[in-house]
Amino acid sequence: MRIAGIEILKAGTIDSINTKLKKLEDQATAQRTRADLRALYSYKNVLTFYPSMMRLRALAEESDLMQSIIGAITNEAFRNEWKYNPRFESKCLKCNQEISFEATECPNCKSTNIVKPDPQQKMGLQKFLDGEVNANKQTLQEVLKQLETDHLILDNSFLQATKNYLFDDQGNIVGGKIVELIRIRPEYVDIMADEKGRRGYTEAGEKARFCVEHRENLITSNVERCPLCGKQLLPAWYALGRLLGESSVRYYAENEILHSMEFNPNLVLAPPIMFSVWRKVEMLINLDEYNRNVFGGDRTPNKFVIFNNTSPSTIQRIKDWVEDQVTKNPKAFIPLGLEGNGQRDTNAQILNLTDPALLENAIELVIEARKQVGSVYGVSPVFLADVSTSGGLNNEGLQVTVTNRATERTQAVHNKILAWITKQFGVTDWVVELNPSEERDEAAEAQLELMKAQRAQAMTSMGFQVVLGDDGEFNYSGEAKTPTQNNFTPTTPLGVDFGFQGAPQTLAKSLNQKKKETELRQRLTKELEKLIREADFKAADSTRDLMRKTRDLVGKLFTRFKDASATTLQKVYLEAVKNVETELGRKIPLTGVDDSNIARIKEDPTLLQSFESIQRETEDDLFTKIREGLNVNKTPQEIAEELGESVTEKQSRVELIARVESQHASNTARMTSYDKVDDGSYKYRWVSTPDNRRTKFCERITERTKDGVSKSELLAVIEAMADPNWYRADHPLTPHANCRSGVIRVVQ
After folding, report:
1. Distance between CA atoms of 671 and 573, rounded to whole angstroms?
2. Residue (of 368, 367, 374, 309) closest to 341 by Cα position
3. How many angstroms separate the CA atoms of 612 and 624, rounded?
């Protein structure tokens, strides 16, 4: 390159510089290396494209959102402290086999040298962990909360176990006693590792060792003993003080400091989780500062009124008046006079100093930013005290489930920390684990159990052997059979069809059900496409409009679902009446009592609450999928196809609930029909299918009524032996959840 005839850069130099700049840019955006992350921890941060660790911690401590997230996760994770569980029930001392039951003989080597967990180990560990664990009088729970705070900000935590060591005559370490557990700030810890990530090495690849009596001396030579005291050397895994530039650096071994990571585990150091949210956190802090200035006493005026005036004395009087008004009221409306050019101009102008767009969008911006930051950590709005809206698209049950998963993740990490502590104490017979959080989505768990039971029923109908294990899980064995080999009958042992779910399906029926599900999904997809077109979803819709349209769409769907379920229950009721007519050999007319029964069954509170819960969940699910589809310009047909599977599953759940309620409808119809012709001589008994799904409640009721009892006696037996947590007076013939049993008249 030549300028004014002078050669400034040689040919090709610019291309070389551009190549180097591109290489540096690629390195800056590539995966962060151990050296990069270590530099971020240094108080002299050499990287400019991310804030330092100290800056991240300052942002987290200043942000009310981050403090809420940290408080929510730590409070939930450590709500119930921890428990001490035996690692085994029995243990063979000959082969070290751990046995999960009380045994007198080892099932592996047949040895009778069997022991139980040592209670002395538990007592010693419990005495230390349940008290103060360091000289700062901190409890273990307080230390664990500090570690979790480090995880939530920097994704790296360090726990130091201060030990007093015992040496033999040759200077070898033969034991050590923990005297303190203390958390170390990640900013202070440098990990000793080479460029390959091997710990216990220098960056040059030399083995790094130290003496526990002279921790400030790092030894890289091949000597086996400390040059100063002759004692055993340990591999140096951690260095304290080096990142802070201190002249005295102390080194620690693997079993003295525990390094744990939670969100993004890495070979050496995890990149801080706040790297993904710090801009939003800083934005929210700046918005708070902006609002403080706007609404504080020292804020600038909102508006000026500007007008021309040719009189200097008038301008001076206005100036004095403005100063007086601002002194009295900083929020006063300020007129501003300007000296004119001699021409009279009576027009006045208003200068607005505020940003209307910012004021209008600030609230929505803050809400969206808080939700996005919370979603990174798995903390739902309900745990951040956001109750601005409830139900519908803000399904609290689903929010609890999401946050429970974050809590489980946190507890899993800290259970590993507790396992490390237990190991340092030399405890081998006991396990320390955090107790689960109290918040549980019981409805989801019950639904899962019901789905497992349905799968077991389907497997049974196909010919498999199904056994309910001690752990509550179904175990399957055997082979599937053809439909002709199945000897099951869709009726009770007495041949009376109660008209509700409980009979196993044949393989042919199972395949037919799959075909019906496919047809149902196709019909729902077409209906969804029609509803989406009618709702006129647009990518430009605001969040509120999108929520409203989604809620209306789901409302129309569930109106149809509820009507279909009500029709199903009415059909079950009428079929049960016909079954009684066949059984007694006489016509039983329907009366107003039957109409009232059917109406109550359709409006059963438990049934309606279950429908509402599924409807709110559907709104939340469809809202997310519709918004994602609109963002990528998908057509209504494409969106409907994506929603089809989800909506089909929801309708199946609605139908499942209706089928479960059909037991109540069937038994109510049967007993009402019996009442119409019973002259007081009828006897009844409880009929239940004697398989591995029969509950102890129905088994006992069946046994007590097997010889026949009066109606009043039957109802009394059911009430006395029903599940006390389930039985309801308005469902006197439903002794427990998901009951399949029924009432039948005993022929004398």
Report:
1. 11
2. 309
3. 19
- What is the 8-class DSSP label of residue 50? S
Pair of tokens at residue 244:
């802070």
pLDDT at 747 over 80: no
How far, in Å, CA of 376 to CA of 157, rounded?
Answer: 19
Query: Is 468 contained in some domain?
Result: yes
At residue 126, φ and ψ (nearest 5 deg) are -65, -40
Domain that includes residue 714, residue range: 678-748
Q: Which two tokens stand for residue 88?
A: 């085994």
By percentage, how much of the chain surpasses pLDDT 70? 69
> How many domains are contained in the chain?
5
Domain co-membership, 719 together with 709: yes
Between the two ends of the chain, the Cα-to-Cα distance in Å is 116
736 pLDDT band (50/70/90 cuts)? confident
Q: Do residue 543 and residue 566 come from a single domain? A: yes
CA distance 386 to 367: 9
Phi and psi for 692 in degrees, rounded to 5?
-75, 0
Please report whether residue 307 resides in a domain.
Answer: no
**Domain-embedded: residue 414:** no
Q: CA 210, CA 208: separation in Å to the nearest integer?
A: 7
Residue 619 lies in a domain: yes
Q: In this structure, are 585 and 457 located in the same domain?
A: no
pLDDT, tens digit (0-9, with 9 covering 90-100), for 110-161:
888 999 999 999 998 989 998 999 999 999 999 999 999 999 999 999 999 9
pLDDT in tens, 213-265: 999 999 998 888 999 999 999 999 999 887 666 668 899 999 999 999 998 88
pTM: 0.52
Quote the pLDDT of residue 631: 74
| Burial 34-59, CB ≥16 within 10 A → b, else e | bebbbbbbbeeeeeeebbbbeebbeb
Task: Return the higher-pLDDT residue of 672 and 364.
Answer: 672
Q: How confident is the model at residue 446 (pLDDT cuts 50, 70, 90)?
A: low
Tell me, yes or no, whether 655 and 514 share the same domain: yes
Nearest to 238 by CA among 196, 195, 175, 184: 184
- Going by DSSP bridges, is the β-strand pair 156-167/257-261 parallel, antiparallel, or unpaired? antiparallel
Query: What single letter denotes the amino acid at residue 688?
Result: S
Asked if residue 595 and residue 467 are part of one domain, the reply reads no
